[in-house]
Amino acid sequence: MAGTAADAATWSNWAGNQHSVATAVLRPSSIAEVAEQVRSAAETGERIRPVGSGHSFTPVAVGGGRRMDLTRLAIDVRVDVDRRLVTVPAGMILRGLNALLADHHLALPNLGDIDAQTVAGAISTGTHGTGAAYGGLATFVEALTLVTGTGEVLHCSAEEQPEVFDAARIALGALGVLVEVTLRCVDAFVLRAHERPASLDAVLAELPGLVEAHDHVEFFWFPYTRRVQLKVNDRVAADDRPLPRWRSWLDDDFLANTVFAGACRLGRAVPALAPGISALSVRALSERVYTGRSDVVFCTPRRVRFLEMEYALPREALPDALDALRRIVDGLPFKVLFPVEVRFTAADPIWLSHSYGRESAYVALHQYVGMPYEPYFRAFEKVATELGGRPHWGKLHWRDAASLAPAYPRWHDFQRIRTRLDPHHTLATPHLTTLLG
Ligand SMILES: Cc1cc2nc3c(=O)[nH]c(=O)nc-3n(C[C@H](O)[C@H](O)[C@H](O)COP(=O)(O)OP(=O)(O)OC[C@H]3O[C@@H](n4cnc5c(N)ncnc54)[C@H](O)[C@@H]3O)c2cc1C
After folding, report:
1. pTM of the entire predicted model
2. Contact assessment for residue 176 and residue 162, using Cβ atoms and an 8 Å cutoff
3. Are residues 170 and 293 in the same domain?
4. 328 CB under 6 A from ligand 1?
5. In angstroms, what is the span from residue 186 Cα to ligand 1's centroid?
6. What confidence tens digit (pLDDT) does each residue in 172-206 have?
């Protein structure tokens, strides 16, 4: 049903740093209705911005025209257990998708840190987890249905409209409104997580082997120290003994959210304490091993609000990037309260993927809400850009089309498809104009 101006609500993202007011809020319940609403916007010169669950830090979901919320889109979920394919409405939340797949003894091959995003929102910005043999979530997409900027309903896959498929899997909502997504799954699996404190130098020294030897490797570097918490997840037999629930809650939720929130508040109030808090956090880290259903091990609740920038680098550039980052942190006129997260992904063929054509190491900088962050992020952005880095589309950065184009070999092909699918700029926003031209 088309919304009216009276429905228009202010919108803000999870981190609280992006806001918009729409001229109308559209909540279509069928693909035909999406098509009709896009067509009518194109005819009247209005803009449409589809939104997911607002977990991007950039204004990528911010638009001044009509906001389209796809949570009411009624499309049947189809699960083909034999072929391990699932087709879902694009606005489905990952948490619900994971539960649905588990009911069918299936799972997504890899996930990021949280499961609160929509399927469309997650794939549109290149959301990823970690694992040298795995691409981001968009690489699991087998087929897509989108409503283009002219209101045409287009189905694409590797066989059907292959160029649109390569462009539309990570498209920042610039090519059309995704309405239905088919994902390739795997049989449900159990992960054994092994977390242990280590020295940064030791981890960097053993990195190439470590990343190849284990399914999912990541580490968190604690600023003002040379220590990291290494997290390695490996696939194990389904009968591996799971960690008791209370222990899991104590470690993951209480320490990661409640205690950490207290430490961040203290560090924000008395910044001089930040290096001490970081050193204390490192000493409090312990080794632990636990097992659980894949999505439960991959994803954890994040209740401490922060701002984030993340850069995908050619994997071999990681040591130089971390070296420079250490110097940046030490030279800042304010303190950094959050650890830096490092993850790894395989190369993929999606045109606007951060990992297009190369194996990546991702370096993610966080800062607690209410703390200064821009000089920190900008200083690292300069280093990352020089190293050939590509910014995560959903996380803060200051790049524009002129600086991004050389980083993406298929940039001009993407632009060609964009002109074809959205000739009237119905899906354009000021942010997308900065990014894509
Ligand atoms: C606490 C937290 C943890 C995070 N962890 C990770 C992580 O581990 N790995 C990682 O890579 N990222 C991570 N992110 C970033 C997040 O995954 C991305 O920003 C993602 O895009 C958010 O999805 P969303 O559903 O909230 O979409 P939104 O942020 O609402 O929208 C994202 C983009 O998708 C577009 N879009 C939404 N729906 C549609 C549609 N139906 N059709 C076309 N376009 C659409 C929007 O227009 C916008 O351009 C994290 C973010 C937070 C806040």
Report:
1. 0.93
2. no
3. no
4. no
5. 23
6. 999 999 999 999 999 999 999 999 999 999 999 99
